[in-house]
Specification:
This protein is mainly β. It folds into four domains: 29-199, chitin-binding protein cbp21 (Coagulation Factor XIII, Chain A, domain 1, Distorted Sandwich); 214-293, Immunoglobulins (Immunoglobulin-like), CATH 2.60.40.10; 312-388, Immunoglobulins (Immunoglobulin-like); 412-486, Carbohydrate-binding module superfamily 5/12 (Seminal Fluid Protein  PDC-109 (Domain B)). The chain is built from no helices and 32 strands. It has strands at 29-34, 64-66, 102-105, 107-117, 121-129, 144-155, 160-167, 173-183, 188-199, 214-222, 225-231, 239-246, 249-254, 258-261, 269-278, 290-293, 312-314, 321-324, 334-341, 344-349, 353-356, 364-373, 385-388, 412-415, 418-422, 437-439, 446-447, 453-454, 459-462, 465-469, 473-474, 484-486. Strands 2, 3, 5, 6, 8 and 9 form a six-stranded mixed sheet that branches. Strands 13-12-15-16 form a four-stranded antiparallel sheet, with no helix packed on it. Strand 29 (459-462) and strand 30 form a beta hairpin. It is globular, with a radius of gyration of 25 Å. The relative contact order is 0.10. This is Fibronectin type-III domain-containing protein. Keywords: Carbohydrate metabolism, Glycosidase, Hydrolase, Polysaccharide degradation, Signal. One of its GO terms (molecular function) is hydrolase activity, hydrolyzing O-glycosyl compounds.
Length: 488
């Protein structure tokens, strides 16, 4: 990536049961919150309205596959669009009318994403099934048409992103909306499908209030922090947000079913209530009140952090694997994590993610994590997970670049006999057509590509002639713009 946000998010509220939290340096993850996606409706926070969603019941944000749908060949294949082709999410590809549907109308529709790790964005793309499609056949490209593209190149979004699309006026009945969030500095995107029942005609006025939130509890209490969670409300249309009341006053709102109150002081008693609101402004009754007292700030800290949970391997190649886990809690503050491979310490980090490189192909490794605080207190070991690297591909003597390998800034590769250098973090982006790679072989040129961005000094071949870029250029034909000069 061109810029990394190095501030670690040490205490991130998870959404529902088992959703994985990441710091902003990690790969992005996200799912569609409203109208609730097929994946999100399979979680506890989504009401468990869909029963067979595989891994999505714990991590609806992890449907990650190559970007460029539907034109890019290795983007989600027909019949695997709902799962993205990701292992463990296959149950969501079963296509029938049994999926829980959200009532919507034609015309303007707000789509809200919940991002568990905001990241540099390329674009947001939305598709809907065509009128007359067969809802009992696997979802295919030929059944979809694009209805919206939101270009957001290079911007890092907020954790909650709401965009407006338009549902065509000729749609009625059961349809599927496909949303794709394309990331700018990786070759991947995050995919979500939404099952909707499209109605025509005037929208009926919503006067029904949501049910009151239940099971409000404090999951963690420290002298400077209280972590709250509750069971989601239900509504005839859908929950818009929850308001958090402290001592009778609204202090914040959230779309989640969890909240961290960081504005508390030691040795103080607080009274919390939660209420739900829908899009029409109907307000539920307050939840049952919860009284929480913060402890005194310890003079000597002897309390160990909680055990890290949610450890997972991700994007494993023949030589590397990416680990990520949920944040631990502590009575003062977690200051870092120690990573163990096969029982030996390999890394200390403040992040919630680590890429272990230079591994052996087709080999199984065991990983665990320990959290620690500034006083040296250490948590118990996390669960031990096993990760098996992939088979090593046979090398091409003219190419060392591998689409499955993560490359960092200034790392070099060979591709078709030419040497390239990475300008920032990258994976899966082909060196001769992606602007993340800089050609550094002396006096070498490659064919000009309209989608690639070039910088001053880059050389290309166009219609048999050699050109040199004078300055930054993209989608400008070398023979028709001042940004290129003919090499003599």
């Amino acid at each position: 990536m061109k810029m990394k946000l190095m501030k670690p998010l040490m205490l991130v509220a998870t959404i529902g049961v088992g959703l994985v939290a990441f710091n902003q340096e990690s790969l992005a993850h996200g799912y569609i919150l409203q109208p609730e996606s097929r994946a999100y409706k399979g979680t506890a926070s989504g009401g468990n309205l869909n029963k067979e969603v595989g891994r999505a019941q714990w991590e609806p944000q992890s449907i990650e596959a190559p970007k460029g749908f539907p034109s890019v060949a290795n983007s989600p294949q027909d019949g695997k669009i709902a799962s993205g082709g990701v292992s463990g999410f296959e149950p969501m590809d079963v296509q029938n009318t049994n999926w829980h549907q959200t009532d919507i109308n034609t015309g303007k529709l707000d789509i809200t994403w919940q991002l568990t790790a905001p990241h540099s964005t390329h674009s947001w793309n939305y598709f809907i099934t065509k009128q007359g499609w067969n809802p009992n056949e696997p979802l295919k490209r030929e059944n979809l048409e694009k209805i919206s593209t939101k270009n957001d190149f290079g911007k890092i979004p907020e954790k909650i992103v709401t965009q407006q699309i338009t549902i065509p006026s000729d749609r009625t009945g059961y349809h599927v909306i496909v949303g794709a969030w394309d990331i700018s500095d990786t070759d991947f995107a995050f995919y979500q499908v939404i099952d909707v029942n499209v109605k025509n005609g005037p929208v009926e006025e919503d006067t029904q209030a949501p049910t009151s939130p239940t099971e409000l509890k404090a999951n963690h209490t420290a002298f400077n922090q209280i972590k709250l969670s509750w069971k989601s409300s239900t509504d005839n249309v859908g929950i818009s947000k929850y308001e958090i009341l402290r001592d009778g006053k609204v202090i914040d709102s959230t779309k989640d079913t969890a909240f961290d109150d960081l504005n508390v002081t030691e040795k103080t008693t607080y009274r919390y209530e939660i209420r739900a609101l829908d899009a029409a402004g109907n307000v539920s009754k307050n939840s049952k009140a919860l009284t929480v007292k913060t402890p005194e700030k310890p003079l000597i800290d002897t309390e160990k952090p909680s055990t890290p949970e949610g450890l997972m391997g991700h994007m494993t190649t023949a030589t590397s694997t990416m680990l990520h886990w949920n944040a631990s809690t502590d009575n003062v503050a977690v200051t870092g994590y120690e990573i163990y491979r096969d029982g030996k310490s390999i890394k200390v980090t403040t992040d919630l993610m680590y890429t272990d490189k230079e591994l052996k192909a087709n080999t199984t490794y065991k990983y665990s994590i320990v959290a620690f605080d500034a006083a040296g207190n250490r948590s118990a070991n996390s669960q031990i997970i096993s990760v098996t690297t992939k088979e090593q591909e046979k090398p091409d003597p003219s190419t060392t670049w591998n689409a499955n390998t993560v490359y960092l800034y200034n790392e070099k590769v060979m591709y078709n006999g030419l040497e390239y250098k990475a300008r920032w973090w990258t994976q899966g982006e082909q060196p001769d057509i992606s602007d993340v790679w800089q050609l550094i072989t002396p006096n070498a040129s490659v064919d000009w590509n309209s989608s690639k961005a070039y910088t001053g000094g880059d050389k290309v071949v166009y219609q048999g002639n050699n050109y040199i870029a004078k300055w930054w250029s993209q989608n400008n034909r070398p023979d028709q713009t001042d940004s290129w000069m003919l090499e003599k």
